[in-house]
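Annual report, structural modelling task.

Input specification for the pyridoxal-5'-phosphate complex:
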Amino acid sequence: MSRLIRAVIDTRALQHNLSVIRERARGAHIMAVVKANAYGHGLVPTALALAAADAFAVARLEEGLALRAAGITQPIVLLEGVFTAEQLREAARHGFDLVVHDVLQIELLEEMSGAHRLVLWIKVDTGMNRLGFPPRDFLAALGRVQRLQPAPLEIRLLTHLACADERDNRMTNAQVACFRQATQGLDYAVSIANSAGILGAAQLGCDWVRPGLALYGASPFADTSAAELGLEPAMTLQTSVIATRRLCRGETVGYGAAWSAPRDSAIAIVAAGYGDGLARGLPGGTPVLIGGQRAPIVGRVSMDMIAADVSELPPVRVGTPAVLWGPGLPVEEVARHAGTIPYELLCGVSQRVPIELR
Ligand SMILES: *Cc1c(COP(=O)(O)O)cnc(C)c1O
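The model returned the following structure:
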């Protein structure tokens, strides 16, 4: 029991989810989004497991460099592009594809010397109001990119949806219409959909899709489970019981004596806390699996431990396995208890938690 908490990654589930997405994406190329340490799953091992993806997408240059250093040869897209001439040279040297969302980035490209030819993704801001050229500026930006010397290897166009996780949200249609209008008559490959866009009802008709969350086996929708979408959770955040207690009615557990036993109770102390990335705000009642069965967390989350009420379970001992999320306990469900989204829980798994591949 030297390594108590670990994130066990099921590479077969990652590959299964990729194939589900491929089916739903109707022939579109797949850019597997592996930013933020592959949503906590481990950047390099995840990319190696997803070798069947057509490209990888990351947020930062450093993430792309780590992939290249690991021998990944697929195209790598920097979703935020580059911000300095040095970053641009480095990106060109490693053959990264760049999102261009700001005039500063076009200026860097115009000023770059040398014979590098890059794939450039021009981003249109269709209402997210984060990155991209607003429709009124888009054609001017495109014109400058088209006139670059040397010419780009290829120009492609993308936008990002704000509300695709709400199935009937009118904003999605409005954004798609805005994108179509802005890019009307242009013969470039386009990309619109993230996981929710791919798995949602609307057919967005893209040349490229950009799944993140769905690859990891979590549902982007509040009203549809991953299982209903055919997805399998790739991460099991697994640990063990390291102590047990019998409490008399009225005795309390943990800091602040925040929970007191409403009756005589059996308590399991589980080796996982906010030092591992669990939200300290996880409320009492949030389920964990102890020996494969659900038990509610009681009391406050500590740095290295939580407590669960196992009064209703068969006997629990030191060493009984515990699962924070994974098959049998979707991370989406834990996120709902925590008042957050599965993205944040997955990305939040901390550095001290070893990643183990299965
Ligand atoms: C993170 C990201 C994605 C992936 O989104 P999911 O909801 O995880 O599928 C796609 N596109 C862009 C631009 C992103 O930043």
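The radius of gyration is 23 Å.
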